[in-house]
């Protein structure tokens, strides 16, 4: 019998910069003067759009002795390692002993439902939020207690991190940490803008840009920083659908052209599948699966992972092993993985994988035929969860 499957609140069926723009030596915007060199990602932004960060606990709180290798990948000078990180807000546990490694040169996407702690994880890597326990390494360097300005990080928040009273050029420049000359700073801004196609818009204010242009400007700011750790918080949220694929292409190209790693968080499984070298799925405060996109899609570790990845609704059917086959309550049987007599399982498939019987050359015993419609799901499109 078919059942509706609900996952985390989602119901599943089953002007260019020119010579007139001056960047004097040591130039700092008013906002940057408050944050410190580097702007967002190098200090704590006091804005109504970004919550105040609680005071950092004393360094001694971070001295729990953990026995982990400092690097899991050859030459991972800028690899990020998150080791047994826990985060509590009062009595609420957000992340629980979470482990994750981003390897050198990798584009890793963290996938999870809204409220699962994805943004908090990024903010801890950036140094904007302190973990309750655990450690964070950049390569073999323990950065757990380092303030943001001492980490080589560029953070692109959901709210884009641009300042309404500054031009796009000025906002991009706040991402530059080094004390450059006027010419060097201007060159850095122009180069970053050119990489995202915004050279002609540098003298505009944020309210004069479209949603897609604002996201590109935020990326340019991160690029201008030239950090080896790039943190992207839902970078495609609030983007019109016709712009999403172009910006996804931009993200991959910019990553491939830049040294270091990219850590991208999203609730969109299809976005993760298109962009990631590997996907890490968070459930119940922990990483429950990390693998290549094709492997996670083909063999999800749980129904929750399968639901998070799917572009179409996920159908589930409870079955029991009887007489060498799997039997559903309505009498439909299907062959499948071997198991002891009486074992129960959940058979799952995406709605997009259902085919009319005349589209299938031959129905195999491992294929699933829907009892009501007679439509067929091929055996290799079924996901099995035993128990």
TrEMBL record:
PROSITE patterns reported in the protein's UniProt record: ABC_TRANSPORTER_1, ABC_TRANSPORTER_2
InterPro entries: AAA+_ATPase (IPR003593), ABC_transporter-like_ATP-bd (IPR003439), ABC_transporter-like_CS (IPR017871), ABC_transpr_FbpC (IPR015853), ABC_transpr_MalK/UgpC-like (IPR047641), P-loop_NTPase (IPR027417)
Region feature Disordered, mapped onto this chain: 38-64
Cellular component annotations (GO), alphabetically ordered: ATP-binding cassette (ABC) transporter complex, substrate-binding subunit-containing
GO function term, MF aspect, one: ATP binding
Pfam families in UniProt: ABC_tran
Positions of the ABC transporter domain: 80-309
Keywords, in A-Z order: ATP-binding, Cell membrane, Membrane, Nucleotide-binding, Translocase, Transport
Classification via Gene3D superfamilies: P-loop containing nucleotide triphosphate hydrolases
Name listed for the protein in its UniProt record: ABC transporter ATP-binding protein
């Amino acid at each position: 019998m078919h059942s509706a499957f609900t996952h985390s609140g989602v119901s599943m069926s089953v002007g260019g910069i020119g010579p007139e723009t001056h960047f004097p030596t040591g130039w700092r915007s008013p906002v940057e003067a408050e944050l410190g060199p580097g702007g967002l990602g190098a200090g704590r932004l006091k804005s109504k759009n970004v919550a105040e960060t609680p005071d950092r606990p004393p360094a001694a709180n971070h001295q729990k002795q953990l026995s982990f290798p400092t690097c899991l990948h050859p030459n991972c000078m800028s690899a990020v390692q998150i080791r047994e990180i826990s985060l509590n807000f009062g009595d609420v546990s957000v992340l629980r002993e979470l482990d994750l490694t981003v390897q050198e040169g990798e584009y890793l996407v963290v996938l999870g439902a809204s409220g699962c702690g994805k943004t908090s994880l990024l903010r801890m890597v950036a140094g904007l939020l302190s973990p309750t326990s655990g450690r964070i390494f950049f390569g073999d360097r323990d950065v757990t207690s380092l303030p943001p300005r001492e980490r080589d990080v560029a953070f692109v928040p959901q709210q884009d991190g641009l300042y309404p009273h500054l031009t796009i050029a000025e906002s991009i420049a706040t991402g530059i940490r080094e004390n450059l000359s006027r010419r060097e700073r201007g060159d850095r801004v122009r180069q970053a803008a050119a990489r995202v196609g915004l050279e002609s818009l540098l003298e505009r204010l944020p309210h004069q840009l479209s949603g897609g242009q604002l996201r590109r400007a935020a990326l340019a700011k991160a690029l201008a920083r030239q950090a080896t750790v790039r943190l992207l918080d839902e970078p495609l949220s609030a983007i019109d659908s016709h712009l999403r694929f172009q910006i996804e292409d931009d993200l991959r190209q910019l990553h491939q052209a830049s040294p270091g790693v990219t850590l991208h968080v999203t609730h969109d499984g299809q976005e993760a599948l298109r962009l990631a070298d590997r996907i890490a799925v968070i459930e119940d405060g922990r990483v429950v699966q990390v693998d290549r996109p094709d492997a996670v899609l083909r063999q999800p570790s749980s129904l929750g992972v399968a639901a998070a990845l799917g572009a179409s609704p996920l159908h589930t059917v409870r079955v029991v092993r009887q007489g060498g086959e799997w039997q559903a309550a309505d009498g439909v049987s299907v062959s499948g993985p071997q198991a002891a007599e009486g074992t129960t399982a959940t058979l799952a498939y995406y709605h997009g994988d259902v085919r009319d019987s005349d589209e299938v050359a031959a129905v195999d015993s491992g294929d699933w035929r829907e009892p009501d419609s007679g439509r067929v799901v091929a055996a290799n499109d079924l996901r099995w969860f035993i128990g």
